[in-house]
Amino acid sequence: MVSLGLIFIAKLFVLQVYDTSYSMSAESNTRRKVTQYPSRGLVYDRNGKLLVSNQAVYDVMVVPRDIVAFDSTDFCASLDLSIEQLRARFVQMRKDIRSRKISTYKPSVFMKQLSAEQYGSFQEKLYKFKGFFVQGRTLRKYEHPSAAHVLGYVGEISENKLKKDTYYSQGDYVGISGIEQTYENELRGKKGVKYMLVDVHGREKGAFRNARHDTAAIAGKNITLSLDIALQQYGEQLMKNKIGSVVAIEPSTGEILSLISAPNYEPSLLIGRDRSKNFPVLLQDTLKPLLNRAIQSAYPPGSTFKTINALIGLQEGTLKPYSTHECFMGYFTRGISVGCHLHDSPLDLSQSVQHSCNAYYCYEFRDILDNPKYENIQESFNVWKDYLVKFGFGYRLGADFRNEVRGFVPNANYFDKVYKGSWDSRTVISLSIGQGELLTTPLQMANMSAMIANRGRFFTPHIIKDIEAEDIDERFSEIHETDIDVQHFAPIVNGMELAVWGGAGSTARIAQIPGITICGKTGTAQNPHGDDHSIFMAFAPKDDPKIAIAVYVENGGFGATWGAPIASLMVEKYLTDTISTPYRKWIEKRMLEGDLINGEQKLQ
Hints:
Blueprint: H1 2-18, H2 21-30, E1 31-36, E2 43-44, E3 50-62, H3 72-79, H4 83-98, E4 108-114, H5 116-125, E5 132-142, H6 148-151, E6 154-156, H7 159-164, E7 173-175, H8 178-182, H9 184-187, E8 192-198, E9 204-207, E10 223-225, H10 229-238, E11 244-250, E12 255-262, H11 275-284, H12 293-296, H13 306-316, E13 330-333, E14 336-339, H14 349-355, H15 358-369, H16 377-391, H17 412-419, H18 442-453, E15 457-459, E16 464-467, E17 479-481, H19 489-501, E18 519-525, E19 533-540, E20 547-553, H20 563-576, H21 582-593
Parallel strand pairs: 2-10
Antiparallel strand pairs: 1-8, 2-3, 3-4, 3-5, 6-7, 8-9, 10-16, 11-12, 11-20, 13-14, 15-17, 18-19, 19-20
Helix pairs in contact: 10-20, 13-15, 14-19
């Protein structure tokens, strides 16, 4: 009798303390834990226009242990599934159970993102399908078919992310790119939980224990971007059927007004159940619409970079505003040949910017590197390189985008390895005109324009303007100094003004805006794979800059052909909200209709 009693006691201990399966089964028959997903924070532009909101969807959840035989035909008709699709889902569910990705006792997602109509139809028959229930959640709704690369998209959490952050559960949604990714913690809110009393058929009968164990979901924080959605949309129209990028910055704050990558895509393509169909199509598109060229593509800056070399020369004392150099259709010395276009000669510094003289900057760059105060080319070159780093080149600027690339600025060791220590200023002469090994992103080029507009200082470019009940990162208000004396900017700015307004021979006359003193610099970057790239950077107005901009159009030819018109139209649109004259409207029409992808109406 004692032995039998001990056996019963041991078995009761196992059932009640050690083995939780019976208690879990009993509990699941009376209550259901339902996660309350918070709505993500709303996103606004700098003028208060709503960019991103939320829309209700519903997930069909399943507790595998509670499933009993049901009418599969009726089930499939309610959810618009085929029998084959239903079988495939059950096969996958069994695999996930065996691999312990899901539990037989806990709810997991069986079918995602039902529309309100599908939910209504299924809800009426839900009592027939024990083990299944519906859980509401929200999806993103993009109010404009623009700014996809800025806003990014939301998708199901990956296995790696799931392992790193215990906040998330299998099937949760998370920001994948753009500001949805960068400000995920602010936008996501905090999940709540609700316990529901259910009957044997899985039908909800009310709150469990008067909701004493429930916790409310906390909505995500609303954020305001520095983006001007009207300017963004206009720029995307101008860049239609072109490959490249446009970045506009407010110089006084570093706030990004517009960030365009072309070709782009509509952000609504990557929400809901259609995302799984659309994403592979976008990924395989040879034009790479998913690539954010503004921060992920690195290009030679071309002649826009002459302004930087001039500033370094002025600071180093190897160049004066009145320094002149002659140009005989290029620069030629001991086997080195750098061609140039026809213009007046000789030119001083401001005129060299106005006419974009290659020869002038070949002389000027060699003077920097052959400066006798340095012992050798390696020392002088690294000094030059250090200036570029202070200008924001060669490293990530630190903008609030996770996948920004750094570009490339070579150092002396790089050329020592390439040329085995035998090189001089002539070897790297292409760097004088923004070619060669030098690579910059469009964001870095726009920041270069903002730095010149500010006469030697800049703020880290950023897209965030305000976060509800929270301060933005203080690094975005930190001033970066370039160590160039402010007086050295006057001849550069004057030269950029002359490039637009200086009359015959000026390289950017097409960028003139009536009533606005715009300063700009064209660039044409050589492209070994096809036509040259068209580049333009500018800021306006001259003495009180409100906008700095960089435009990069791949295979667009001269900077004045595409880059300058597009930039000037965006500047005019931002400052005046209109395109002013018939001549400017004619330019606008050419930019809107120009097609560099399909070869139609290509400008000569």
